[in-house]
Amino acid sequence: MAHYQIILAYDGTDFQGFQRQGKTRTVQLVVETALRQLNWQGRTILAAGRTDTGVHAAGQVIAFDLEWSHSEDELGRALNASLPDDVAVKYVRVAADDFHPRYDAISRTYQYAIYYQSERDPLRERYAWRVWPEASLELLRCAAGILPGVHNFAAFGTPQRRGGSTIREVKRASWQEHPQMLVFEITANAYLYHMVRRLAYVQVQVGQGRISLEELEKGINEAIELPPGLAPPQGLVLARIDYRNERQEWLLH
Question: Which domain holds residue 118?
Answer without folding.
Answer: 106-240
